[in-house]
Amino acid sequence: MTEMVYGIAPARSGDPVLPRWWRTVDKWTMSAILLLFGIGLLLGLAASPPLAARNGLQSFHYVERQLFFGGLAMVTMMLVSMMSPVMVRRLAVLGFAVSFVALALLPMFGTDFGKGAVRWYSFGFASVQPSEFLKPAFVVLSAWLMAASQEVGGPPGKALSFVMAITIVGLLAMQPDFGQAALMLFAWGVMYFVAGAPVMILTTIAGGVVGFGVLAYNSSEHFARRIDGFLSAEIDPRTQIGYATNAIQEGGYFGVGVGEGQVKWSLPDAHTDFIIAVAAEEYGLILVMLIILLFTVIVMRSLFRLMKERDPFIRLAGTGLACMFGVQAMINMGVAVRLLPAKGMTLPFVSYGGSSLIAGGIAVGMLLAFTRTRPQGEIADIFRRRGH
Known about the structure:
2 strands, mainly alpha, 69% helix
């Protein structure tokens, strides 16, 4: 129990991989992730049968697929979390190269599945969304560049990472996928801030983001339609936001009962983007608060453990991954309660989606690898030595 709370178990050199991994990994974070996946399966049992019926499939077709891809995601998470920071960095470099090329080729070979945004490659039996895999790789690679720029004679890593971020944002805007673009830019901004960015530069970048938003509103009908719908004083009850808002109101504190919810019959994305509406209607505020608590545990424990880390690369990469994970959850739930415009973003480990689950497993596996306890002094030790 002491190890789970304080994370002070030392890594002993020469130990077998599995015992060393079990002793050093953050068990609270891993437990919260497994609970989120379990809740996702529970909600999938409620939300996906209507979609399966509409598509002429067996009732639990999507649940079975979620169990399969989720199982792969959990195994991937465990394997990645066993890697050293150097191995994680190498994986990120390789993943970034493959995902970036795949993202760039989407306009020629991708599909939109009738949703108006070309974001996927369809292989018949499954589809892949490159941006999901690009996110963790981009964060780790950017952290490496920023950390390298702090060394004497190091490369201009901050400038290179910014060029990389802007290029990716441009490719995502072409789909269009402004939600993922904003999420990646946010993760880069957090790491840039932690790396010691001047406030003036951050203010200038924020102004540029606002300017880009105005340009996107004036040039993209897809973007403008979502913003107008968000700002409208009236909610069309026949839209996804209308159905989700009504479902959340109907759920109350304890929900209408398991299997008694109606929103899953009306929302085409009830099993993905609006899964929280199904949770709120059938299980009430209690389950929603539990989901929020689990995401909070993952993010806060990771950040607290990273505060003790003295390697700048690990600190930056872990912070970027943790903040991106938490903000994606906030965006998904914020859209459902109309605090944010519709983004088309999944709730990590809860929503249905093969790419989302496996990419999430990679991202959280990297985060667990970075937050493992290592035989090193804490960052506070450096300041103490400097004071003497």
